[in-house]
Write a structure and sequence with these properties.
Layout: E1 7-14, H1 18-26, H2 28-34, E2 41-47, E3 54-60, E4 67-78, E5 82-86, E6 104-112, E7 115-123, H3 127-135, H4 138-157
Antiparallel strand pairs: 1-7, 2-3, 3-4, 4-5, 5-6, 6-7
């Protein structure tokens, strides 16, 4: 259920099978190719796609110096259908206080006549956190990486 006061969403039809989109989420080499908006570069430190598994990435603006980007844990993993992760619990399963806000993201992949119905819901604990995420460029950031994911998956599907 989406709460418009607390949640932000991205939806897109990706013209590739769900298995291809799933693989782009679960293969560290593929994940690194789309997870941050270009021209920034992503380094995947850990991507353990299982309940309780780690999701740790680093970001570089220049391709040389990397800084922490995301330290999160997977909560739910339903093969080729759904992923849920949060930055409220870090990769070591310790309570976290990430800047600039806590979030839980749910990714769903559903069948679509043209490929995959792709949806992300990013949940926030307060309307202020939601507003802050939106003001920091949620639509551009998550929209851009979704386009990059689609481009990768659609190329692989040809």
């Amino acid at each position: 259920m989406i709460d418009p006061e607390l949640d932000l969403t991205v939806e897109r039809v990706i013209r590739a099978p769900r298995a291809t989109v799933w693989n782009a989420w679960t293969d560290p080499a593929k994940f690194a190719r789309w997870w941050v908006p270009e021209p920034a570069v992503c380094r995947v430190e850990r991507l353990e796609v299982r309940p309780g598994g780690a999701m740790v990435t680093q970001l570089s603006e220049d391709g040389a110096q990397f800084v922490p980007h995301l330290d999160a844990s997977f909560l739910v993993v339903e093969e080729i259908e759904r992923l849920v992760f949060t930055n409220a619990i870090d990769s070591r399963w310790r309570p976290a206080s990430p800047e600039p806000f806590l979030m839980t993201a749910e990714v769903t992949l559903a069948e679509h006549p043209e490929g995959t119905d792709y949806r992300i819901i990013v949940r926030h604990g307060t309307s202020a956190a939601r507003a802050q995420h939106e003001a920091l460029g949620f639509a551009d950031g998550w929209g851009t990486v979704t386009k990059q994911l689609a481009a990768l998956a659609e190329r692989e599907n040809r």
